[in-house]
Amino acid sequence: MGQNRRPIIIVSLLVIVCLATAGYSYFQYALLQLHVAFAEGQTVYFEEDRRRALASNSPDEIVALMESTVNYYPSGTKQPTGTRVDRIVERARNLAAADMILRLKQVTGLDLGKDPAKWIEKHHKTGNLSK
């Protein structure tokens, strides 16, 4: 009788393993979909700030938009740090900030380098970015 039950136990264990694996895979897929949806929202936000900054002639407005982009859900908040999705989001953030800095250079005639923090710091210290 024990010999007859052995195949049933093995098949039952295999079914349990398959169901557990399928459940885990579905959970991982759903989590990835959530992170991709967050990433889409973040990159749309950056692009909107970038578009508004490039259309602006106000250093105050451009700096405010850049500060908003730089500080909006930093790496490790909506995306696990270092993941592929996080790197995509951070690349979009950095490109938007770089374009805003180029616009600030055009509008102000200043060159404080490529680091957004320097532009933001100067703006907060002086209240403006005039020479």
Keywords for this entry:
single chain, 131 residues, mainly alpha, 4 helices, 78% helix, 0% strand, rod-shaped
Give a structural overview.
- By secondary structure, the chain is mostly helical.
- The protein has a domain at 37-126.
- The chain is built from 4 helices and no strands.
- It has helices at 2-54, 59-71, 84-108, 116-126.
- Helix 1 packs antiparallel against helix 2 (59-71).
- The longest helix has 53 residues, at 2-54.
- The termini are far apart.
Number of strands: 0
Q: In percent, how much strand structure appears in the residues?
A: under 5%
Helix/strand/pairing class, anyone? mainly alpha
The overall average pLDDT, rounded, is: 92
Shape: rod-shaped
Helix content: over 70%
Report the C-alpha radius of gyration, rounded. 25 Å
Order of helices and strands: HHHH
Q: Regions with pLDDT < 50 over 5+ consecutive residues? A: none
Helical segment tally? Answer: 4
Largest sheet: none
N→C terminal distance: 93 Å
List the helices and strands and how they pair.
Blueprint: H1 2-54, H2 59-71, H3 84-108, H4 116-126
Summarize the model shown:
The chain is mainly alpha-helical.
